[in-house]
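Backbone shapes recur. Consider a single case.
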Amino acid sequence: MSSQNHPTRQTPAARLRELDLLRFLAAIAVLLYHYTGTIGGPWQQDNARELLGTPTLLTQFGYLGVELFFLISGFVILMSAWGRTMADFTISRITRLYPAYWFAVLLIAALYLTTGEGRGKPENIIPNLTMFQQGMGVQNASGVFWTLWTEMHFYALISLLVLTGVTYQRCITFMATWTVLAVFAEETGVQALQALLIPEYAPYFIAGMAFYLIHRFGPSLLLWGFAAFSWAVSIRYALPIGTSEPYNIAPSNAWPAIPILITLIYATMALVATGKLHRLNWRGFATLGLLTYPTYLIHYELAPPLARLLHPALPYWPATAAIAAIVLITAYLIHRLIEKPLARWLKPRLRDSFDRLRPTDTRRHRDETPRHRTARDTPRNTPPTDETQPRAETPAPHDQEPHGSTPSPPIGSSI
């Protein structure tokens, strides 16, 4: 395709700092929901919505930051997986997700030992260190860890794409197959299929992938169709989820607020995909993006002891601001003192472990260019080195990458 038909929206060295900003805003939305928008909250199990008044009419919807995390995760995980081997992809996920997560689990254990509160019992902590505890039927050490298990489902599914080699055509096939099977899983009511295909949250990951393909190759009716279908399915699930446990939003408030907010989330990602937010390029957004994952991991369990310490000396809203500030400072320290050093230690050792799986006489350069490529598989922008930054066509295999969800959520990384 000619560059005239598909202009490049960013230089190869540009970082998608708008995604860093969106991840941080999603984390803050979730934080405000847990501190002010729930019918529980950190204020000695009182009803935070009643205690904090009118602003909670908005913050009660902050849990939808998780849905934004999942959308971003679909975008950035496909971006980071492009051109990588399964070993590269696995190493990137382990080094990105586990260092801060291990610290968060051990912090929860320490809080339980010192206060006797929370879910930090040893029988919970040991399985939680694997991040697979939910699949084992073990309680999450934190109420926010369920999103990581949802992200794991996405990673497991997209690994099938990575194993076969990520191309435009295979992405389309993967997205279409997942979309249809997720609907069938809901129709059949078969628990195994629903657990595998996560029909309630699959639309966000699929739409995120579609938005990345729009960003990389340019818009098409088919890609917009994936995004539109996912948007419609998202609203179908978002309404009953929002009005049931644990969110308990009154039906009179849920409609039309939830559909409007879901639409805004999708519209914002569409603006990212089409380059309309590229001016949000402040360098500090990258730092905010790096804080997102540790902030998400620790904010829920740190809040109750901090709330008891700060209130009633401070009114509810100033105490909330103080707790948020403490969490952000702690998240920064986790990133600098835990995430970066441990990831730096893990990467070469994991790489060596995977290299030993290959017969010496058959090893090949893992970034070897395919012999035959179609126009759709030749990107307008170079592949990414991390979840928000494009990378050179022949990348260094161990480039550092902030979380998504994603899950960065996660923030997310995704969180």
